[in-house]
């Protein structure tokens, strides 16, 4: 019991400096994201850059009632599309992650 109380006292003594670690760091830009109409619907410009990005996705789930299936069919998709201009021309990156059964 005595060791537990000592450890608890040590934790409480060190707690106030540790609370500073959870302070929110200032963001590089507090400005709102602007739309990128030249890239298409859903694209927004990342503040401080010329890069436009679009995040999209979907999720679906269903339940089979009255069958002996033990799993619930769940599907999800996340798509990230970014576009930027470079000295050689436009640069595009696209990532799509599909999870679940079809």
Task: Characterise this structure.
By secondary structure, the chain is α+β, with helices and mostly antiparallel strands. The chain has one domain (28-100). It has one helix and five strands, in the order αβββββ. It has one helix at residues 2-19, and strands at 34-35, 44-45, 52-61, 74-86, 89-100. A five-stranded antiparallel beta sheet has the order 1-2-3-4-5, with no helix packed on it. Belongs to the alphaproteobacteria porin family. This is Porin.
Percent range for β-strand residues: 35-45%
Number of domains: 1
* Percent helix range: 10-25%
- Rg, nearest Å: 24 Å
Kindly report the spatial arrangement of strands forming the biggest sheet: 1-2-3-4-5
Q: Given the helix and strand composition, which structural class is it?
A: alpha+beta
Topology as a string of helices (H) and strands (E): HEEEEE
Alpha plus pi helix count: 1
DSSP, total strands: 5
Shape: elongated
Low-confidence stretches: none
Distance between the termini: 57 Å
Biggest pleated-sheet summary: 5 strands, antiparallel
